[in-house]
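[Meeting: bench + compute handoff]

Bench side (C.D.) handed over the final construct sequence. Compute side (W.E.) agreed to return the predicted structure before the next meeting so the bench team could plan truncations. Sequence as handed over:
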Amino acid sequence: MAVTTDDTKSSTQLQRRSLGVASIVFFVVAASAPLTVVAGGVPVSFAVTGLRGIPLVYVIIAAILLVFTVGYAAMSRHVTNAGAFYTYVSRGMGQAWGVAAALVALVAYNAMQIGIYGLYGFAAAGALDQFFGLKVAWYVPVLVSGGIIAILGALQIDLNARVLGFFLIAETAVVLIFDIAGILKPAQGLTAAPFLPPALSGGALGAGLCFVTASFVGFESAAIYGEEAKDPKRTVARATYTAVALIGVFYAFSAWATSMAVGDSKIIGVSQKLGPGLLFVYAEQNVGKWFSDVATVLFVTSLFAAILSFHNAVARYFFSLGREGVLPRGLARVQRKTGAPIAGSMAQSVVALVVILVFIIAGKDPVLALFTWLTNVGALGVIFLMALTSVSIVSYLRQHNEMVTESTVVHEVAAGVSSVALFVVFYLAITNFDVLLGSKPNDPLNWILPGLIVAAAAVGLVYGWYLKFKRPEIYAGIGLGGTLPEAHTEEDRTLTTLQS
């Protein structure tokens, strides 16, 4: 592994053995932003899709992702690399497809992170006006917080975990209190109807699947922190299983509790009327104004935590691609003192700043445009990446399990099943993209925005083939974490023996 000279302050090695299961779970669950999902995602899902069965959709997606995790966790025990999806696809389907996955990941995660800035700016500006009478444009708190995120991105990864952990515990407590209050004071009595199949009729199921999948985005990022985990072969798998289970149960229960607080027959109409304000209105009604005020503040910090978590993920993708020469090698620089991927962090901050400035200059709405457009693009990209990764896992495990056991067969079957399910979700999301955007069926945005994911994959494939023929030394090292192919081959043999 190359390092810089002693007179510099950076190297190309991440901080090792600093994260345990709990720390990685904080990163993963914070990215999904519990309070943001329950206050924003749940009522918007009811309103836009017209489905009373959103709680059941959470159960369906959680089941698909748990099946996905069976193969994903098995792959994480074979391969430890900050590139995650990029690395897994490279090792399973070939380097060119790996580069395609890398560009899709950069587009998707940047889109998610930058999109959340839109909702954050709107919420933060509203909170400043509500509590302090300060009227500022939405982009003022965004630009200030963007600078804070950039600083945190250069600090020790375990410090970031503690920051996220504090926010996560606080917002989770608020959501639980809201849920319990809604169940104790149901508008129309308690019913299991939202969990039954008939509740999925009469609405846009494809849009519901995409909305709900977006709530889980971030759970798969556990593998990104594999190089910084205390025990990579166990920590990543345990953190991923834990995150999916926690997110699935928590969000399904919260969506049901929200429906009970409002009333099963009224939830769609009330959600369409109040939108993200639903939680705060019913929090004040069922608990008290003080609680609604606390929830408002933590809604802002929840969004901040999600932005920080996605920032860390994107920074590590830049780092991984720079380390292997797919992108400029300068992106692989890390702080020698903290082990943080400083160059990748700075690159992500610059990308976010440029995109946000474009939306500011264009005068676009921070929620209806910046948040809605980009987060849906991000969710679509991650769905595609998970489907592609599942195919890659099947291919890799078949190539690297010299002794076929019951366990390896289970992993391969699980990855195969999840790939089919995720491609179906991807197709349904594209066909319902106008519903996701709230646009007309003939609006050009319906194909332009999904086209960003397709374009990223196509450009990545072409660039991968270019590297194969013009830069074979770089192509040979794609997905190997900066090691020589020969050394990696020996590592694969050792891991295969241990697995067998």
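W.E. noted at the follow-up: Confidence is low (pLDDT under 50) at residues 1-17, 486-500. C.D. will use this when planning the next construct.
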